[in-house]
Write a structure and sequence with these properties.
Layout (H helix, E strand, L loop, with lengths): L1 H16 L9 E2 L2 E4 L2 E4 L1 H7 L4 H14 L1 H15 L8 H6 L2 H10 L15 H21 L9 H13 L4 H40 L8 H36 L5 H17 L1 H4 L2 H10 L5 H15 L2 H4 L3 H13 L6 H17 L6 H8 L7 H15 L18 H15 L6 H16 L2 H9 L11 H20 L15 H28 L4 H7 L9 H5 L3 H17 L3 H14 L7 H26 L8 H20 L8 H14 L4 H20 L6 H19 L4 H17 L21 H14 L13 H27 L9 H4 L6 H18 L1 H23 L8 H15 L9 H15 L17 H5 L8 H14 L2 H5 L6 H11 L6 H20 L10 H8 L1 H10 L47 H35 L3 H22 L33 H4 L2 H4 L5
Antiparallel strand pairs: 1-2, 2-3
Helix pairs in contact: 1-8, 3-4, 3-7, 4-8, 7-9, 8-9, 8-10, 9-10, 9-11, 11-13, 11-14, 14-17, 17-19, 19-21, 20-21, 20-23, 21-23, 22-24, 23-24, 23-25, 24-27, 25-28, 27-28, 27-29, 28-30, 29-30, 30-32, 31-32, 31-33, 32-33, 32-34, 33-34, 34-36, 35-36, 36-38, 38-39, 39-40, 39-41, 41-43, 45-50, ...
Length: about 1200
């Protein structure tokens, strides 16, 4: 009613006295005036943000006092324009139309072509506009709070307009008006809060004045205070009516709007209301909206709920009024710690931390445990928030008896807190990652975790009377936590898997890092030898303790005069090596010695002497034991074998990081391996470690190779490779796997890659495996990798069985990756990958990613050879199927359908760029056609060839042929066909019919389509030449040359009626080659040299030559086509006279082929498109020669790198 009054008054005034309008300063004709010039509307002023919001509002208020009608109309148009609407409300519309009619009119003028509007536009200007928009509303209400908002006109009109806009179907209107209404409500809440404070002050003054004695009481003042209180109460009632209208007209409907951003605005603002004016809003009537919205589907809205509640729980006075809400929605908040949105989970944990601070009794033990385990989360913000919760729960409560404890040491407060950390670490049975726990607690408890003095005291000092000492398991946990804290302090980055990378440290952080490293060195240089002496026999403790020296500042040993402690440390390392045979302990000793033996520090000579003495003793002991062990005529006992094994293991471990070439261990190890082959009774672990030690010997010789030693290195390497090859054929699986892995590594290191980066002088060291070695490696893979899980040996027990299966699968994957590296680096022939590729579908879950990446890499190397390998793998599967099912197999059988599905997957690998893979696809079809007609029918003439059904598989690749190539391939197919074959329509001939139809589909267009295709090809080549190479084009130089000459090549091929890519097929050792006697004369795809010259693929052909050859090709094609015209005519007449099989069968066959082509296009997103997939190679190197794409295996720094010695694939 109030808004209607306002509008009526506006109409009366406009009718009676509109001509006498007066404008206020800063406004001219309703436009803001800056520097005396009229230039911008209110929307533009707020959008630009150049003027202070305060001054803009003051100018508007001044204008409103002089002419409230026009000025209010400007404010209405301000909200309309802020919604992105191009229309404007005129005075005539405002006087005679209702709000709903005005909104409908504005909706009609809204620009519906674009869904963007100011609140959704990106960019700094529009972000600033949103801030200015909200500030404008807040300042407007604040400046009008003493008079204008009570005139029953401005506020009623604005609230009525915003309520109507918030109910609009137009998202822009609804979003903008909701934001405006919520900010208007927030501003009114501030006004109501001020009124409430003034009312309380007035009431207090009135009570104080009334309580005075009558003689001193001022009645006039009492009257004024009563009048003021009455006015304040009236204003309060009016403000509450406005807030009630906004809440019921906008909030109640929009907090469940379809748009998540609108819902988030509502929840964010109601949180502000409850925090600002808790007396009016902090009750269950308003809290229920926040509780309900915590179940919202959008994380953005749930996040606003949690941040709103955090503001309430942060204030202890307000948190006491949330008990009912907490009991009702606590379970929901706890469950949100596992929210799929990480930001929501973080804020939920922070909210629970505030709840915990407000009251210890609210959260149960189960609630806390659900948060505890999140300290091990891989997402660091969640883990840090959970760490803060854990710290507040377990470490923040101090009793009065703890106030007098010392600051450091075993009896200090930190001592009990460290014990508590150890107990928690051991009780979290699901996780055993100390580094993650330390990282989670680092931000809130770094001082505790850096109290290494107390930790050392807990480990070394004897417990006080009545104090419970740590048991062995607790001490092990404390050592691990201590090591993790040292690593965190010295490295200043999260553990692996919890960080996106090393961030740049600030100057303060760098200083703290240096100080911590100095403290660690000074403290543990003294304590570490004592700790090693105490726990010398404990594997876990020693392994962790020996990792501490790598965080030392080694200069402090000299500057701090701590050399005697260094000697003590070296003696303890010697003792550990002498007592232990565990691989982890020995590797820790070797790594520590390698770090301490640094030539840059003055302690190098001292450490080097100690290391040499240790290795001298080990080598002498090994040689002495080996002589006794290999004595002829005596059978070695278990004790001798154990002594040899333990000593060899220590030497091997040290040889990984240290150069032992001066001890000449190759002879003794080779002798040991040779004796094992001759006798066959050598323990497997001795053989495995002897192989590994010999491998390190060769690598260290290679790192120090010179002209005089290259012959010796090559001789040792060849002898060792032959030894490994012989061990591959032994019985023991562990020995065979070790031999295979080392052999693959050596073949890769000593391949042609060794000459890269200017090392041509090492050409004499290149070693190429012969065919027998390649065959043995491939047979090993087929026998030991492509096997079923049940065939592999496993331990007893269900849990152990699952763990052993996973470990065995991981081992097989490493073996396969080692061999695939030989393929992609051209150490073995690419076509040997056919036996790998054919397993792609069967073992997709286990090795699909490795095989897929191998195909991708081989395609980069040689597209044609890769295509030949793919078709060869299909031929192998087809032959295996024939041998199993016989030549009368059913084409609907699972075996045949599996081969066809594999062909479909292979087809997808060629991508959508048919020009790029043109020659490769043509070669694939050529090999497939020859294979299909290679073997005659076992039933004699008149029956289809033995492999004719292979054409059904080959048809999966027909869609990858361009139109002119389909015709060429079709003509090559007809050279293998007889006249009788073309007339056959029985089911056994359907593969031939289907394949021919797939080649004829789209290939019988007019000649212009061929010319246009070649013209576009030529223009493509020219455009590629004119543009600089970019990283997105993954072409090797040889590919560019071949593509640039493909036009002339194809013209010559069409002229000679032959299929594309006339290259000799590689020697395929694992397949049966065609008998030359059985080959028909026209079967030979490559002409004899004396009849036709070989085509040079690298010749650059000009465009004019291409056009002339195209014309000649058309003439030749027309002459050839005349020969088949009559034959086709006779065939069609004969079939029409026959049973009509051609008419009944041909159309469905064509339909099947076209459907399969469409299916291929739908399945392109399957992830098999290697031409478009991201290759893990530097963009700047993708266009270099193949030899430059390979790692530098000769670099001494990479000799010991995992990429060389391990079998991780890429």
């Amino acid at each position: 009613m109030q808004s209607k009054k306002g509008k009526k008054a506006l109409g009366d005034k406009a009718k009676g006295g509109g001509a006498g309008r007066v404008t206020g300063p800063g406004w001219v004709n309703g436009h803001h005036q800056e520097n005396g010039m009229e230039n911008m509307t209110l929307f533009e002023v707020v959008k630009m943000g150049k003027s202070a919001t305060q001054s803009v509002v003051d100018d508007w208020i001044e204008a409103y006092k002089h002419d409230r009608d026009t000025t209010l109309l400007d404010l209405i148009n301000f909200f309309i324009q802020c919604s992105g609407c191009k229309g404007a409300v005129s005075g005539e519309m405002f006087r005679h139309m209702q709000n709903s009619e005005i909104i409908r009119k504005m909706t009609e003028e809204f620009d519906e072509d674009s869904g963007d509007y100011p609140l959704t536009l990106s960019g700094p200007q529009w972000k600033k506009f949103r801030i200015n928009f909200c500030d404008f509303i807040a300042v407007l209400v604040r400046q009008c709070q003493y008079s204008i908002i009570y005139d029953e006109y401005m506020m009623d009109t604005i609230i009525s307009l915003l309520t109507g806009l918030s109910d609009s179907q137009v998202r822009a209107f609804r979003h903008t008006s909701t934001l405006a209404a919520m900010k208007l409500m927030t501003a009114l809440v501030n006004v109501a809060l001020n009124l409430s404070i003034n009312m309380d002050n007035t009431q207090r003054q009135y009570e104080a004045e009334r309580n005075k004695v009558i003689a001193k009481r001022a009645n006039d003042r009492l009257e004024l205070l009563l009048q003021k209180r009455k006015e304040l109460q009236e204003n309060q009632d009016e403000i509450e009516n406005m807030m009630n209208a906004i809440f019921k007209g906008v909030f109640v409907h929009r907090y469940r709007d379809a748009i998540a951003e609108i819902r988030a605005i509502c929840i964010e603002e109601i949180g502000v209301w409850m925090k600002l004016y808790s007396d009016a809003f902090l009750n269950d009537s308003y809290l229920k909206y926040v509780g309900w919205t915590m179940h919202d589907k959008q994380g953005e809205v749930r996040l606003k709920c949690l941040t709103a509640l955090q503001g309430l729980f942060y204030n202890r006075e307000l948190s006491t009024r949330l008990e009912l809400f907490t009991s009702r929605f606590k379970d929901r908040i706890v469950s949100m710690t596992l929210d799929k949105e990480y930001d929501v989970a973080v804020q939920a944990i922070k909210l629970l931390t505030l709840v915990l601070q407000s009251s210890d009794e609210v959260l149960t033990a189960e609630d806390c445990e659900s948060v505890y385990h999140l300290v091990y989360s891989a997402h660091r913000p969640i883990a840090v928030a959970a760490g803060e919760f854990l710290f507040k729960k377990l470490f923040s409560h101090r009793g009065p008896e703890e106030d007098g404890l010392p600051r450091r040491g075993r009896q200090s407060l930190n001592g009990s807190l460290i014990k508590t950390t150890v107990f928690f670490f051991l009780e979290s049975e699901l996780h055993e990652h100390g580094a993650y726990l330390v990282d989670s607690l680092w931000e809130c408890a770094s001082e505790l975790l850096k109290d290494w003095e107390t930790m050392i005291s807990l480990l070394l000092d004897e417990p006080m009377p009545g104090e419970e000492a740590l048991n062995d398991r607790q001490e092990t946990a404390l050592v691990e936590i201590m090591l993790c804290a040292i690593r965190q302090a010295c490295e200043c980055h999260p553990p692996v898997g919890r960080g996106t990378g090393k961030r740049v440290l600030t100057a303060k952080e760098k200083k703290t890092q240096l100080d911590d490293r100095t403290r660690v060195t000074e403290m543990f240089a003294v304590a570490l030898p004592l700790l090693l002496a105490k726990y010398c026999v404990d594997i876990d403790k020693v392994t962790n303790l020996l990792q501490i020296p790598k965080f030392f500042d080694l200069d402090i040993y000299t500057t701090g005069r701590l050399e005697k402690h260094l000697d003590a440390l070296l003696r303890q390392i010697w003792e550990v090596v002498d007592k232990h045979t565990d691989t982890e302990v020995l590797e820790a000793c070797s790594t520590t010695c390698h770090y301490l033996c640094n030539e840059e520090f003055t302690i190098f000579n001292r450490v080097d002497i100690a290391r040499s003495q240790l290795l001298d003793e080990l080598v002498d002991k090994f040689n002495r034991l080996l002589e006794d062990f290999l004595q002829e005529g005596e059978e070695p006992d278990e004790d001798d074998a154990y002594q040899v094994l333990s000593t060899l293991k220590k030497i091997t471990t040290f040889h990984n990081a240290h150069d032992l070439t001066k001890w000449d261990l190759f002879t003794s190890n080779y002798r040991l391996l040779n004796t094992g082959l001759q006798n066959g009774d050598m323990p497997e672990q001795i053989v495995v470690h002897a192989m590994q030690c010999t491998h390190y010997i060769i690598l260290w010789h290679l790192a120090k190779v010179s002209d005089g030693t290259s012959v010796k290195v090559l001789k040792q390497m060849r002898a060792f490779c032959l030894m490994c090859q012989r061990y591959i054929n032994t019985i023991n699986n562990a020995v065979k796997e070790q031999a295979f892995t080392i052999l693959c590594d050596l073949l890769l290191i000593f391949s042609h890659q060794i000459m890269s980066s200017g090392r041509e002088q090492l050409e004499s060291l290149v070693y190429t495996p012969d065919s027998s070695l390649q065959a043995e490696l491939l047979n090993f893979i087929l026998d030991h990798v492509f096997i079923d899980q049940d065939d592999d040996n496993s331990t007893d027990g269900q849990q152990d069985d699952e763990a052993s299966k996973i470990e065995a699968l991981h081992k097989r994957r490493n073996l396969l990756a080692a061999y695939c590296k030989l393929i992609i680096y051209n150490v073995v022939e690419i076509n040997t990958g056919a036996d790998i590729f054919k397993q792609y579908m069967r073992y997709y879950n286990d090795y699909g990613d490795i095989i897929k990446e191998t195909m991708s890499k081989t395609r980069q190397i040689d597209k044609i050879q890769c295509a030949k390998t793919l078709i060869l793998s299909l031929q192998k599967l087809f032959n295996e199927m024939l041998s199993e099912l016989g030549f009368n197999f059913d084409r609907s059988s699972s075996a045949f359908c599996g081969i066809k599905e594999l062909a479909r997957r292979f087809s997808l690998t060629f991508g959508l760029d048919q020009l790029k893979t043109r020659e490769a696809i043509a070669m694939l079809h050529k090999d497939g056609i020859e294979f299909a007609f290679k073997e005659p029918s076992p039933q004699g003439e008149g029956s289809p060839p033995l492999n004719l059904a292979f054409l059904d598989i080959l048809s999966e690749f027909s869609s990858k042929l361009i139109r002119q190539d389909k015709r060429t391939v079709h003509m090559y197919l007809e050279r293998f066909m007889t006249f009788q074959m073309a007339l056959q329509r029985e089911d056994c001939w359907l593969p031939l019919i289907s394949y021919r139809n797939s080649l004829q589909a789209g290939a019988d267009d007019d000649t212009m389509s061929v010319i246009s295709g070649i013209s576009s090809r030529g223009s493509t080549v020219r455009s590629k030449k004119s543009k600089p190479a970019t990283a997105s084009k993954r072409k090797l130089p040889e590919e560019e040359n071949s593509s640039s000459s493909s036009d002339a090549v194809w013209m010559n091929r069409e002229q000679n009626v032959q299929t594309p890519v006339m290259m000799h097929s590689p020697h395929l050792t694992s397949t049966v080659l065609r008998d030359p006697k059985k080959m028909r004369p026209e079967d030979s795809f490559t002409p004899h040299p004396q009849h036709q010259t070989t085509i040079d693929y690298n010749t650059q052909v000009t465009w004019m030559l291409t056009q002339r050859q195209q014309a000649e090709a058309r003439q030749q094609q027309e002459r050839v086509s005349m020969h088949y015209a009559k034959m086709r005519n006779h065939m069609q007449q004969a079939i029409r006279r026959g049973s009509g099989l051609m008419e009944d069968d041909e159309e469905p066959i064509v339909e099947d082929v076209m459907m399969s082509s469409e299916d291929r296009l739908e399945d392109i997103n399957e992830g098999m498109d290697f031409d478009t997939m991201d290759i893990d190679l530097p963009a700047s190197k993708n266009r270099r020669e193949r030899t430059e794409l390979k790692p530098d295996y000769f670099d001494p720094s990479s000799i010991m790198d995992d990429s060389v010695l391990n079998v991780s694939m890429f």
